[in-house]
Amino acid sequence: MSRLPLLLSLALAVLPGPACVTSPPAPAVPAEAAAPVEHAFLWEVQGAQGGTVYVVGSIHLARAGELTLSPSMDAAFQRSDALVVEVDVGAVDSSKMQQVILKQGLLPGDQTLWQRLDPETAKLLAAAAERAGLPMVGLERMRPWVVAITLSVLELQRGGYEPGLGVDRLFLDRARGSKQIVELETAEEQLLLLALLPEPLQEQMLRDQLRRSGQSEGVLERITAAWKAGDAEGLAAQVFQQEQEDPGLRPLYEKLFYERNARMAEKVGAMLAQPRTWFVVVGAGHVVGPEGLLALLQKQGHRVRQLPKAP
């Protein structure tokens, strides 16, 4: 990934003249420093065989009017032949997804969540459910991964964040009926990714979510600020902070990010072998970091550069 430009501040020391000099010569005026470049959260990837991919990191939930697409994003989108997303949420069969959740997200028979959780996690969950106004009886048949996502989304929605206002949704609405839409994954694959996590890892995900209850809104605010500033390193620091603080979460990050990043990079790399222009919008956490999509595409030999907000 290209780094943000470093702005050098030049200090000119002006030495006073001798006491007999009544008027020292005026100091030379340095050439005006170039204005800092404002980067978008947008990268251009040039393939060795003529293909071009524009990569945008998406924030999937946003507040009304909070995210503004830069002119360069608009221009790159217009130049592209197809939109590539993780999942085309507008084409998801909701009844099929409900069946998957009923099959994969509920505990079998007469088993309950409380029988499976350790005392600390159960206590944290009871407190979180009370704050969210969720009846405990409504949670007792759910697997830990369903509870973790439910509580996280509810917390963000209370803060005014909505999935329909995310960056990916904005581009999907524009592409519908006018551009080819390509999926890197399916909604069912994403659900099964969580559903098939080992149960200890599911409980670990839920416990970590509960321990950080009340912090999700602040984290997303900082992620959004980094996105607006085109600050890839700042955004990565927010997304991967938990893993750095608790190395025990590495297996979870492997499943949710790094293994998926590798699969995405393989598919996008194949697109770069074609003489077409693609506009790729995936979660911002998949784009950044040493194991992110951009770093993996660079390792494949493609040229990557971050673009400014100006078109």
Output the keywords:
311 residues; alpha/beta; 6-stranded mixed β-sheet; 6 strands; globular
If you had to describe this structure to a student in words, what would you say it looks like?
Residues 1-29 have low confidence and may be disordered. Strands 4-3-5-2-1-6 form a six-stranded mixed beta sheet. It is globular, with a radius of gyration of 24 Å. The protein starts with 38 loop residues before the first strand and ends with a strand. β1 and β2 (52-58) form a beta hairpin. It has 14 helices and six strands. The chain has one domain. By secondary structure, the protein is an alpha/beta fold.
Report mean pLDDT, rounded to a whole number.
85
Biggest sheet, in brief? 6 strands, mixed
Indicate the overall shape.
globular
Helix content: 40-55%
**What count of structural domains?**
1
* Helix vs. strand class: alpha/beta
In which order are the strands of the major sheet placed?
4-3-5-2-1-6
Low-confidence stretches: 1-29
Strand runs, count: 6
Strand content: 5-15%
